[in-house]
Specification:
The chain is an alpha+beta fold and 254 residues long. It has helices spanning 22-45, 55-59, 68-74, 109-118, 133-138, 141-153, 157-166, 177-181, 184-188, 230-237, 242-250; strands spanning 92-97, 100-105, 172-174, 192-197, 201-206.
Amino acid sequence: MSGVAYRIGDPEREPLTTPLSRSDYWGAINAASATLAALFAREKDGLGQHVDISSTEALSTLIGVLSTIGFVETGVYPKRAGTRNKDIAYPWVILPCKDGFFSMITTSDRHWLRFVELMGSPDWSEDPRYQDRVAMGTEYPEEVDQFVRPFFATRTKAELWDTFRENRIPFHAVQRMDEVANCAHLDERGFFSEVDHPEAGRVKYPGGPGRYSETPWRLRRAAPTLGEHNAEIYCGWLNLGAGALVDLRRAGVI
């Protein structure tokens, strides 16, 4: 309903769905933010509020001016772009490297010129056709890709990362899930937490959404097992007696 899926995939093929329950996640993030705003308002004026969140509305703003907002503001009907963005100067593209894929995004001329130097300043780069980055990005990006591909094809993601970091060029690898889970950068930031679970054993969980100087986040307990908090909820919060809890179990309700 949000129109986001229409932007995903190859322009010559059918649209692709968003990963997993993306709309639920995005709706929840917006709900959390809106709830915090309502709580701050209550502290100020003492009045509570009903917070109404639409996952569709939240997701429709996910990709900013390239989605619903952009169409309302400009009337431009966005299309699928596959592995590239054809609306800006070259390059904004994902290309294969020796052990996967690498993302190229250089919005500044100085970054592009550094990259050309890394390729050895080939003869084609002196051609006026390949000095107009806007035309390269919007009119014939696939043509330029063919000159760039060999540089990536002979290098691994790690080698490319080191090279671009050393030369201060903002490119990055397209990481698989196992690479994210074992990412040295995330480990250094303490993003993942390990917790002992009574059934699953020792499990590695993603961490908090941010790092706070005065109130650091930490994972206090593992995910609950099935029915672990029945007594606390039914007998505590709902004020049911212990006998009622037994009856609910016998009836197969819980």
